[in-house]
Design goal:
- The chain has 516 residues and is α/β, with parallel strands linked by helices.
- The chain has 4 helices and 34 strands.
- Helix content is 18%, strand content 33%.
- The strands form 4 sheets. It has an 18-stranded parallel β-sheet that branches. Strands 1, 2, 3, 4, 5, 6, 33 and 34 form an 8-stranded antiparallel β-sheet that branches. Strands 14-12-9-31-28-26 form a 6-stranded parallel β-sheet, with no helix packed on it.
- Strand 4 and strand 5 form a beta hairpin.
Length: 516
């Protein structure tokens, strides 16, 4: 029961027997002060507070709903931006893939050294038409070419990525050629541009990177070993398109290096017969099971060098020299500086021959070295006055029946008697229309050898720092226990006296790449 509020209690005297009332404002000792009772809020205020809570709850619901909508919208924008970036990247990748393809074809172009820009540009159009017209990639479209523009229409980049294509435009730009490649994917395009320029040089096609290159067949018999101590190996190349087996290893012959043949359809079982085997450069394992990966048939025939010995002819006419004729006696040991062998002298060096400088052999001749031969310099044979057929037998001969060691012209003293010769580097022997025979031991032969026939017989051993080129369809044989190591310098310049066809080719101008 709630007692009514007594407003006069504070002023009324205490009842009888009650303890005296403490003074106003004080609490009677031992008695806790009364707890004030808060009156309940008015009903209208309680209702107002319940309405504010609803408003606050609604506000937070609206706030978080807005944040959720904004986040969803932002996620959609980010997803769209990511998709657009992916499309742009794929379009750019298509353009760069197309540029790689076009660059490959353009850098394969070799034109004559005298070709004009119009002729080269016409060759670009013809080359791309031959490469792309009629292919599935173009889908019936064709490469168009005229005097001012070559256009390659849309080419599909990859079947795994439908819709990714590239197209290319090539136009003359001064003395150069501007190539623009545009990649497309899902409606997005990106373009890249480069400039190609002409480069004039000798078309060598890697022919000098091999140990032996012959226009005829090459046979290795007995226990012949052809090896190398350089990482790239020592290649054997035959350009004979008619021989049944252009390169043939019989008996226990061994090779370290690659085999290249112009004739197609020749496989490794045709090349290696009996216990003949292939092994890796520097290795000792014969046979090696990887031989299949080192026999190549049906290759494009490389450019063959032209022999031009005019610079040596000029030197022998001006340098101090010893002249050998048919009446010259060479029975004992001889030591000579610069030697001119007259036509039909047919000399026989029966003793030790030590020669420094240039040995120039006029045409025709048959020269025999029976003793030990030491040459610091080069042997240059005057070529025949006509161009012999590649199937003709050589008319001249040169035999090395004893041991031979040579050193290059760069090792000659820098004196007047060798003036102008020391920079004619690279070749040891140029003997066009000569059949050359090595019967004895080789020490180190410094330089490339060019002959019209070559035989390595007996116990010929040694090291050749250069290549051997044989320009006739003659059988090049290695019989007996021949063991020759080749050291081929793939980066060396063409030897003096060798002239490869002057050609123009297209190279990418450094720093010309740009996105447009």
């Amino acid at each position: 029961m709630i007692r009514p509020f007594d407003s006069d209690r504070a002023t009324r005297p205490p009842a009888a027997g009650s303890p005296p009332r403490p003074p106003a404002g004080q609490v009677h000792p031992g008695i806790a002060p009364p707890t004030p009772v808060r009156p309940p809020p008015p009903a209208f205020l309680a209702r107002r507070r319940r309405g504010f809570s609803s408003i606050l709850a609604t506000y937070y619901v609206a706030l978080f709903s807005g944040l959720a909508i904004a986040y969803a919208a932002m996620s959609g924008i980010n997803s769209e931006a990511t998709g657009n970036a992916r499309k742009e990247n794929l379009a750019l990748s298509a353009a760069e893939s197309g540029l790689s393809i076009v660059r490959y074809h353009l850098t394969q172009l070799h034109a004559d050294g005298t070709a004009t820009q119009a002729e080269i540009f016409a060759s670009i159009g013809a080359m791309l038409q031959n490469a792309f017209n009629g292919t599935v990639n173009l889908g019936g479209r064709t490469v168009t070419a005229d005097a001012g523009r070559v256009f390659l229409p849309a080419v599909q980049v990859d079947t795994a990525l439908p819709g990714a294509t590239f197209e290319a435009e090539i136009v003359p730009d001064g003395a150069s050629y501007r190539c623009t490649v545009t990649g497309r994917y899902a409606g997005v395009t990106r373009s890249v541009r480069v400039t190609f320029e002409e480069s004039l040089g000798q078309l060598e096609n890697g022919i000098m990177n091999n140990g032996i290159v012959s226009r005829g067949s090459v046979n290795f018999n007995g226990s012949a070993v052809l090896k190398t101590n350089v990482a790239g190996g020592c290649g054997v190349m035959s350009l004979d398109p008619t021989a049944q087996i252009p390169v043939h290893f019989n008996g226990s012959a061994q090779l370290q290096g690659d085999i290249y043949m112009v004739k197609p359809g020749v496989n490794v079982d045709d090349v290696f017969n009996g216990s003949a085997a292939w092994g890796p450069p520097g290795g000792t394992s014969f046979p090696d099971t990887n031989a299949d990966n080192h026999v190549f048939s049906g290759i494009d025939e490389p450019a063959w060098p032209e022999i031009d010995v005019a610079e040596f002819t000029s030197l022998i006419n001006t340098l101090p020299k010893t002249t050998i004729t048919s009446s010259t006696k060479l029975n004992g040991s001889v030591s000579m500086h610069n030697v001119y062998i007259a036509p039909n002298a047919n000399p026989r060096f029966n003793g030790t021959a030590t020669i420094s400088g240039l040995v120039y052999i006029a045409y025709p001749n048959n020269v025999v070295f029976n003793g030990s031969t030491n040459i610091t310099g080069a042997i240059i044979c005057e070529p025949p006055p006509y161009e012999p057929s590649v199937t003709a037998s050589p008319n001249c001969g040169m035999n090395f029946n004893g041991s031979i060691t040579t050193s290059g012209v760069e090792n000659l003293p820098d004196t007047a008697e060798y003036a102008g010769l020391r920079d004619k580097k690279g070749a040891f022997l140029i003997a066009k229309d000569y059949d050359v025979l090595f019967n004895g031991a080789m020490g180190i032969v410094n330089g490339t050898m060019y002959t019209s026939g070559l035989r390595l017989n007996g116990s010929t051993t040694g090291t050749i720092r250069g290549s051997i080129l044989v320009d006739r369809q003659r059988i090049l044989t290695k019989n007996g226990s021949v063991n020759v190591t080749f050291e081929v310098n793939a980066d060396a310049q063409a030897p003096a006296g060798f002239r490869f066809t002057q050609s123009k080719r297209l190279v990418l101008r450094a720093g010309s790449y740009q996105e447009v």
